[in-house]
Amino acid sequence: MATQDVEKGRTDGDMFDRAAIDASGSRQATLQGTGHRLLGNPGPLGLFSFASTTLILSLYNVNVRHINTPNVVVGMAIGVGGLVQLLAGMWEFACGNTFGATAFSSYGGFWLSFALIYIPGTGVLTAYDPASGAAGELHDALGIYLITWFIVTFLFFVASIRTHLAFNGLFGCLAMTFMLLAIGSFMNKINVTKAGGGFGIVTAFIAYYAGCSQLITQETSFVSLPVMRYRRID
Question: Where are the domains of the chain?
Answer without folding.
Answer: 4-39, 43-215
